[in-house]
Specification:
single chain
Amino acid sequence: MDSARGQQIDHRNTNGVASSSWAQSDIATAETARHLRSTMAAWLDTRPVGDLGNDIELAMYEAVANCVEHAYSGAAPGPVSVTATHADSTLTLTVSDAGTWQQPIDRPLRGHGLGLLRAVADTVAVDHDGPHGTTVTLTWNLSNTSPRGRGS
């Protein structure tokens, strides 16, 4: 796993449609989550996301934090990968790990991560395959750049 922490930004123009991607992978730790949040914020500053930037940054951080806390529970931390793609008027964010899915547990004051993602993103898809990792895919329609979350 590359721990160089170098920002990887790919600006492409495909068939006349402006596209830009950002991707990073590292070991799932709290330090990695903080680093990814700051580099995601820098990339979002280059995109026309308007007031949605904070919602997108928060959603990415929450998905990575869930990976840090749950995916490798009882084991050494493993990889987490984050990819963001802006094409046309859609921003797609994907967070993947290679850990084991943990069923949500009802705990007071905890366990609201997926609810938060659903509150701030236009669509949320969670794909988990037992011990073979989890992928969370979030999308935002950028034709409306008003924040989605209540109280944003």
